[in-house]
Amino acid sequence: MNKLYFFWALVLLVLGCKEKQTEVETAQEPEYYSEPYRPQFHFSPEANWMNDPNGMVYHDGVYHLFYQYYPDDTVWGPMHWGHAVSKDLVHWEHKPIALYPDEHGLIFSGSAVVDKQNTSGFATNGETPLVAIFTYHNMDGEKAGRTDFQTQGIAYSLDNGETWTKYEGNPVIGNEGIKDFRDPKVTWHEASKKWILTLVAGDHAQFYTSPNLKDWTLAGQFGKEYGAHGGVWECPDLFPLRVEGETESKWVLLISINPGAPNGGSGTQYFIGNFDGETFTTDQKEPKWVDYGTDNYAGVTYNNEPNGDRIFIGWMSNWTYARDTPTEKWRSSMTVPRKLKLKKIGLEYYLTNYPISGIDGLASSELSKTWIVGPSETTTKTIEGMNQSVTQLKTTSKDFSINFKNALGETLVLTLDADNNQFILDRRKSGKVDFQEDFGNKIHIAPLQLLDGDDLELKILLDQSSIEVFINDGLLVMTEQIFPNEPYNSITIQNKDPEANVTVESIKKMESIW
Ligand code: FRU
Questions:
Q1: What is the spatial distance between Cα 174 and Cα 396, in angstroms, rounded to a whole number?
Q2: Active site residue 102
Q3: Measured in angstroms, how far is the CA atom of residue 445 from the centroid of ligand 1?
């Protein structure tokens, strides 16, 4: 090689590296995570595009969060697995990219397991392998109009997720011509002493079994005639959960769907039923929804959670406008981690989701003391810092609204309208809405009949560019993005009920995790 060329190439490389080094702010710098709309107590990547949570697994003191990541732009592109770790599911440390695209394709969504018995044989010196199972998406195949371009691959780590090696026998599940064939979720099934892999195949889920995570056998299918089918099925999850207050356990199947969610675009439905080691069955024909807001998608749960809890994290966006949201350096964040519970009301089972208690630990100074809005009364309080807060409310009112507002008059309104059996989230005038036509064009409605009894408890998390509303321990949930041009600094409660009070128990500031 020409020596001069080599010299200049080296100079450019060193300069290039220097430039990169100064570009990335470190956590110590005051500007770190302080851009407009940057969530302060939700996970978001330092820079660039993120979608689904992937590979959620706990091992040896560490909760891993991998995620669909495109490191070169703030819009979707060739997918990698980004990586972060946490000891408490509240504070996160960013790690280098875990999985890069390779000759089989891009790295789409999937899961990770702790292979405690080394069934895979990946450990050779007594280590415990972490095994990631993901979808390969082959772009050339897709462009050529083929239908077999999505296959399933695995990779392993022998140092608790620090470094990863792809399995040389990939792909472990080939494709016989199903266009949408992806998002494997794997768990250990103790009763049959086998690994179970659930993936989606267009309009249904498939279940595979394996003794070693490498050799998979198709065992069952579910879903063609069940639930919502307004779009393709994506990101399944399958797990048992004990029914609250009872000894009985049921199996829960989560299925994300895009489009076809109750308020438009992407959403996550669930089914409650049974799983016999080979297939899932239920008599639930109609879908139930994890979240009635428009911004909770592709959510799945942790494997190997140390307290035996089922912890869920979703991507806080919607494919309808995910690429258009008005953030500059990065795009989108995750929901707060939520604990799932199963509740039986009458003869029906419901899955509830509610912030893990660690999130409460971020609540600090009181922005407002307890106050009561009496029957047919309206009260407004000016509260700086409202848009990074947690509000707790209690009421038996059948007709009230909560209105968050800023100095520009932009408003985000929650309304409980018992007469029409509705809980409504209205972000039509909440701030920037016109970056995409479907973002702010209509009110979003959740059915009130889900709630049992007259007492309502609301927990509302506001974090710069999102709102999460949890009613009655997460029996009814709405999660949405918002982009106010200035922070909300007042709250108005209009109580139209002639008999009942609305009690604002507390409004507290939420500390930043960054
Ligand atoms: C869901 C999804 C998955 C796919 C991934 C690609 O949001 O479409 O089905 O694996 O995103 O990034």
A1: 55
A2: no
A3: 26
